[in-house]
Amino acid sequence: MIDENKDYGDTSVYAALKTAMEEDGESFADKVCFVSDEQLKRQSAYSSDTSFPVVWGKDWVYFMLMYDGGYWYGHAPRNPTDTPLEGQGGGG
How much is the pTM? Predict the structure, then answer.
């Protein structure tokens, strides 16, 4: 169970999402998400109770990827494009 008073730091869904969006040049403040920032901060990527929200940025849609115990946000274009995406995730 998630401890609502605990600061999960760098393992939070909030931190993973913010990093992914900033690396793409997206504005984290302008994201569209149906979960509050406070809820994202309380959710640890390593908690069994965590659901990972899909988040929309200006140019990308973000979703959580998981492989071999690691968690991170992947992305796909928000609008159709002729450029194919490379595989996302591990084991490839």
Answer: 0.72
